[in-house]
Amino acid sequence: MKAINLSTGEERIYSHNEPLMALTQCYASENNLNSKFATNRKALADKIKASVREGDHGFHMGNWSIPKATICVSA
Predict the structure, then answer these.
(1) Which in 12, 13, 26, 34 has the greatest CB count within 10 A?
(2) CA 75 – CA 64 distance, rounded (Å)
(3) Contact predicate 52/59, CB 8 Å
(4) What is d(CA 60, CA 6) in angstroms, rounded to the nearest whole number?
(5) Where are the beta strands (DSSP E) in the chain?
(6) Whether the Cβ atoms of residue 44 and residue 24 lie closer than 8 Å to each other
(7) Which of 27, 72, 66, 69 is closest to 45 using CA atoms?
(8) CA angle in degrees (0–180, nearest 5) for 41-46-52
(9) Nearest-angstrom CA–CA distance, 26 and 62
(10) pLDDT reported for residue 72
């Protein structure tokens, strides 16, 4: 799965298929909350959950987007 910052072009690759956790990590990284992400990622995910939107082609939060085409579907 790939998260893309639409403002900067930065890309982050994730080996899991959990868009909320990927966007939570992006948020933590941008807001100097990496320690909080490491110790209580669920609380941080709950905090940003309302800001994450699912569109026809991906998941979006702020400048970050995760195209659905990059999310692996396991059979």
Answers:
(1) 26
(2) 27
(3) yes
(4) 10
(5) 2-5, 11-13, 53-54, 58-61, 64-67
(6) yes
(7) 27
(8) 105
(9) 10
(10) 82
Helix (H) or strand (E) holding 37: helix 34-48
- In the prediction, which pLDDT does 74 show? 54
> According to the model, what pLDDT value does residue 75 have?
45
Q: Which two tokens stand for residue 34?
A: 């990496």
Which residues, other chains included, contact 8 with Cβ-Cβ below 8 Å and sequence gap of 6+? 63
Tokens in use for 18? 């959990």
Distances (CA, A) of 16 to 8, 20, 35, 65, 72: 23, 11, 20, 16, 8
Q: pLDDT in tens for each of the 75 residues of the chain?
A: 999 999 999 999 999 999 999 999 999 999 999 999 999 999 999 999 999 999 999 999 999 999 999 998 654
DSSP label at residue 61:
E
